[in-house]
Amino acid sequence: MNIIEKDKKEIRWVGLPTSLDQECQRYQEEKVARQDSIRKKTEQLQELVIRVSKKTYNVKKRRDVFLGDFKSGTFLNL
Questions:
Q1: Domain ranges of the chain
Q2: Which end of the chain is less enclosed by CB atoms within 10 A, N or C?
Q3: DSSP states of 10-25 as a string?
Q4: Is pLDDT of 53 > 90?
Q5: In sequence order, what are the beta bridge partners of 6?
């Protein structure tokens, strides 16, 4: 009946047989949970991509301003 499995000295509980309807319902629930997880991770990834692109733009902008000061011959006195 495949209730338990034995592998050398290890015995594992597999469980009682379930009906096909219960197993199908369980797989559907698992599918929905995984789709939700994928959706959340996709949203997080999109947010991170936006943040990285904004930071990259700011770094380029600051670098251009900083290098522009050297090109024009004006410096900050400390």
A1: 4-72
A2: C
A3: EEEE------HHHHHH
A4: yes
A5: 11
Looking up tokens 């599918």, which residue turns up?
Answer: 31
- β-strand 10-13 against 4-7: which pairing, if any? antiparallel
Cβ distance 69 to 63 under 8 Å? no
Overall pTM > 0.85 = no
The pair of structure tokens assigned to 5 is: 């499995």
CB-based contacts of 3: which residues, under 8 Å, 6+ apart?
13, 14, 15, 16, 17
Total residues belonging to the chain: 78
DSSP-based three-state secondary structure for 76: coil
